[in-house]
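Contributing new records

If you add data, match the layout below exactly. Sequence lines come first and carry their own label; structure lines follow with theirs. Keep one chain per record. Anything else will be rejected by the validation script.
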Amino acid sequence: MTIFELLNINPGDAIKVDNPFSGSGPREVVPLALSRNGISIRAIDCRYGDICYVSGEWTIFLSDENTIELHTFPYIKQKIDEWNSLKLKREEAQERAKEEVRLKDIEREFATLDEVLSTISIDNLKVAVTGTLPLPRAEVKAMLEHKGAIVMGSVSRQTTFLFMGNTGRFEITSKMKKAHDLGVKIITL
């Protein structure tokens, strides 16, 4: 089963989700795939462009504005049950939960350009590029244009995605700020 079949959406569609533990409110994410163990969704958080994992307790807002928690989907429930039945995995998870992790020590995870281009259709979409990219800017631009994107020099209301190189944990570029202000989805590469 793919995430697109599970949620009845198309690749590249954004969904609204809410993490009940963060207190930061609902946000849009672009699902990429089910996690390897099938109990969460690997997605791009459209606020910052980072990879996030939508876990079982998260609320998903359906197209009719009803909500459902991820763990209530039968497929996800089955995978969670399988996960919980493996005693060794449970003990490892309990040990990991005992470790204190400081937020500044957590490494951000980003989607690869290949992963994004193979998952999200950007044909005829206006996109912008900013930051220090994993490839030369001209190469990234050529790859985006080859997939049909219209690469713009700046962010505007017509921009669908801002592809951003890693700017560091707390740095906010002017293009990123404008993208936030206009509701443009950010994907960090």
